[in-house]
Amino acid sequence: MTPRADWQAKVEADGLIWHSADGRPYWDESVYYRFSAAQVAEIEAATVELYRLFLAAGEAIVADARLLDRFGIPRAFHQTIRDAWEAEPPALNFGRFDLGYDGASPPKLFEFNCDTPTALLEAAVIQWHWKEECFPAADQFTSLHERLVAKWRDLAACLPARVHFAHAADEAGEDGVTTAYLRDTAAAAGIETVAMLVETIGWDEERRCFVDDEAAPIEALFKLYPWEWLANEAFADVLVEDLARGGTLWIEPVWKMIWSNKGVLAVLWELFPGHPNLLAAGFDIPDGDAVAKPLLAREGANVSIRRGGRIVAEAAGDYGDEGYVYQAIYRLPEPAPGCFPVIGSWVVDGEPAGMGIREDGLITGNTARFVPHIVVD
Asked: Which residue, 299, 47, 297, 17, is CA-closest to 178?
């Protein structure tokens, strides 16, 4: 379809300042996807089932120190992860299941982005406003905004007077946009918020607490910053100490390290071999075709696709030192030459909350296009 003439101004007004990349739209409304209600119900059911499987995998991982080691998690954090898993500290418990789906066979899990998931504002707000303007009679699979506000409201009684929101300074502004949107959802629930950069988090040695750049204690912190990076910062030892004594309340909790690690894909397949929503996965290099994924990576970096003993696609990056997991190849639909869509199915507090679609080549990277959708009967 023809994009709206003033689409840039409209998405910027909704907060999406990062709407173009490399001279082309990142938010791409020149096309859209149309789903039936039955197809959406299938994606929603698969999301519910995958969340159930991840709960079982989490139980298996926290009970096995060898798996925690295999995941590359520093041993100093093993007990804090176990403690947080059992205690279930306050959390949004949100994330995005990336799925392969052809509209006919069961959706298949690629991975779960649940520690630092992005493409959130696009799925929750931008595509909804596009639908309301372009297809007002149609439906859309998203309740993300309402569920996030409701979850913050539910958490409010467990939170201090102010919650800090931190992200790393990223040139593109994607992390900043995502964090600002989450601040908006918390504010809509009546929570006072404070913005800061991860780089400005400090440690007060005398008071034994984390502080912001005004030396105010950080009692609760939402951070869009990977736990595995925090676990390897210079202050990792005091972070363990602070977690053990219940100092700063971290959102999301430290146990997210086990779900965001690609090693969970191998554990899932071992626990549920042949499951219709899973792809075969393991830690050992298989004889046949496979996708190699670093245990710890972002935005498709260092992913490679191997067919017939040779690499047919790969992405550059600085990851992979901790090891790899190998997942069976899924043949994505190709609605246009070189264009492969991946479904991002969101959960909030473990409940399905909507979806977004990104298009890219065989490996979905950080410049993948976000494309809207509608649902029709």
From this structure: 17
The closest of 214, 225, 237 to 175, measured between CA atoms, is 225
Task: Say if strands 249-251 and 310-314 run parallel, antiparallel, or are unpaired.
Answer: unpaired
- Of 290, 368, 351, 357, the C-alpha closest to 325 is 290
- The pLDDT, as a whole number, for residue 286 is 83
Q: What is the per-residue pLDDT across 259-302, written as a single tens digit (0 to 9) for each?
A: 999 999 999 999 999 999 999 999 998 878 899 899 987 776 77
Share of the chain above pLDDT 70, in %: 99
85: left (phi over 0), alpha (psi -120 to 50) or beta: alpha
Measured at the CA of 118, the angle between CA 112 and CA 122, to 5 degrees, comes to 120
Q: Is the pTM of this model over 0.85?
A: yes
> How many CB atoms sit inside 10 A of residue 51's CB?
20
Distance CA 43, CA 106 (A): 8
Q: Are 68 and 60 in contact (CB under 8 A)?
A: no
**What are the φ and ψ backbone dihedral angles of 25, each rounded to 5 degrees?**
-65, 135
**Measured between alpha carbons, how far is residue 177 from residues 57, 137, 303 in Å?**
32, 29, 26
